């Protein structure tokens, strides 16, 4: 059990709350950025979550992205900063705000590891991505550049597909629940995709923070059992359901055509879907010298496979 002082920025978010829990579970001294009263406003869920973190042993540190000194003071208290700033367009999207955090970390001079908000496809491999979805990767690369120029030690976590967004719905757009009758298949449905339970993303992420093997590297989450084609994922659901679904195929051409006319946030998401399901971009590259694979580094983590994950939807 480590005893590293870790600050989680964005701790009440979808990923952030899992990172806070993993920090506490792994025995770290866990600090969570609490934004000032005027920024929390009347968001009672956010406040209650922060108070619950405190009850579970976390320390709340007040700070705001509008107050540089408050960020410096917050990061001065810790050795590691994990940021889970929002980055999903249809929800909230503020990846570039992290440049302010990098400035604060640089000034504070005490941070031994910074993990910026990544947790998706490796942006370094997505320079060719379709517009407008490319914005996500470009912004994450801008943050990487600032991190590397500031010489702050880092780890990037490339988490691939969060199961809640991509597995529970059998990768159907516009829904979070699995279809019970008909399912759309992208192309032939045979590109390899990587699905990861968000709680496992958090567990692996926190494992890296004091691990010299992940210093200045990218951690790729590729748990072997969870490298599946869309067809294989659908088969697992059909097995649980006890019947087969009607399938319809969506050609790459039709998929691209359907992007026109949807709003900007949907186009961003659909662009990512395109690269995942038609290009097979998640599993078609080797991990080089600059990367490590999570389930190999941490074989003790009992990750959730998608048979187990999908049971919650029955
Ligand atoms: N691989 C995948 O399938 C996948 C899916 C979803 C997301 N992601 C990635 O995961 C990361 C986190 O996304 P998320 O969905 O967890 O984010 P989120 O829940 O939408 O937001 C996370 C946090 O961002 C902070 N935030 C938002 N706007 C802010 C502002 N104006 N000022 C200060 N803080 C602000 C808030 O922190 P407070 O707690 O301080 O309020 C919020 O809780 C992103 O990089 C995203 O791209 C990956």
Q: Could you characterize what this model shows?
A:
Belongs to the NmrA-type oxidoreductase family. Isoflavone reductase subfamily. It comes from Actinidia chinensis var. chinensis. One of its GO terms (biological process) is lignan biosynthetic process. Keywords: NADP, Oxidoreductase. 38% of the residues lie in helices and 18% in strands. It is α/β, with parallel strands linked by helices and 314 residues long. The strands form 5 sheets. Strands 3-2-1-4-7 form a 5-stranded parallel β-sheet, sandwiched between helices. The chain has a 3-stranded parallel β-sheet with strand order 8-12-15. A 3-stranded mixed β-sheet has the order 9-11-13. α1 crosses α8. NADP nicotinamide-adenine-dinucleotide phosphate binds next to β5 and β9.
Brief summary of the model shown:
Helices cover 38% and strands 18% of the residues. With 314 residues, it is α/β, with parallel strands linked by helices. The longest helix is centred in the middle third of the chain and has 17 residues, at 134-150.
Strand order of the largest sheet: 3-2-1-4-7
Q: Cα-atom Rg, whole angstroms?
A: 20 Å
Q: Which ligands are bound?
A: NADP nicotinamide-adenine-dinucleotide phosphate
Low-confidence runs (pLDDT<50, min 5 residues)?
Answer: none
List the defining traits of the structure above:
314 residues; alpha/beta; five-stranded parallel beta sheet; three-stranded parallel beta sheet; 13 helices; 18% strand; binds NADP nicotinamide-adenine-dinucleotide phosphate; oxidoreductase
């Amino acid at each position: 059990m480590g005893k590293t002082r870790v600050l989680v920025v964005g701790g009440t978010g979808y990923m952030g709350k899992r990172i806070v829990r993993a920090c506490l579970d792994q025995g770290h001294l866990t600090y969570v950025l609490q934004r000032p009263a005027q920024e929390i406003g009347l968001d009672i869920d956010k406040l209650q979550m922060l108070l619950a973190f405190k009850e579970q042993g976390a320390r709340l540190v007040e700070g705001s992205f509008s107050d540089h000194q408050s960020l410096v003071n917050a990061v001065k208290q810790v050795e590691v900063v994990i940021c889970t700033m929002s980055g999903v367009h249809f929800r909230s999207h503020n990846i570039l705000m992290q440049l302010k955090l990098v400035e604060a970390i640089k000034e504070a001079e005490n941070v031994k590891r910074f993990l910026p908000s990544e947790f998706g496809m490796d942006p370094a491999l997505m320079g060719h991505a379709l517009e407008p979805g490319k914005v996500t990767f470009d912004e994450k690369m801008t943050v990487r550049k600032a991190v590397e120029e500031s010489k702050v030690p880092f780890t990037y976590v490339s988490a691939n597909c969060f199961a809640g967004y991509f597995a529970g719905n059998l990768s159907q757009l516009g829904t979070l629940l699995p279809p019970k009758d008909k399912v759309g298949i992208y192309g032939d449905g045979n590109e390899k995709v990587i699905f990861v339970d968000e709680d496992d993303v958090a567990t692996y992420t926190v494992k890296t923070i004091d691990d010299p093997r992940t210093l200045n590297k990218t951690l790729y989450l590729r748990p072997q059992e969870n490298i599946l084609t869309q067809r294989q994922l659908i088969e697992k659901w059909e097995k649980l359901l006890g019947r087969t679904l009607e399938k319809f195929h969506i050609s790459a051409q039709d998929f691209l055509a359907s992007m026109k006319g949807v709003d900007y946030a949907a186009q961003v998401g659909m662009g990512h879907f395109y690269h995942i399901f038609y290009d097979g971009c998640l599993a078609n590259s080797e991990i080089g010298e600059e990367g490590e694979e999570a389930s190999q580094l941490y074989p003790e983590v009992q990750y959730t496979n998608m048979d187990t994950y999908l049971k919650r939807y029955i």
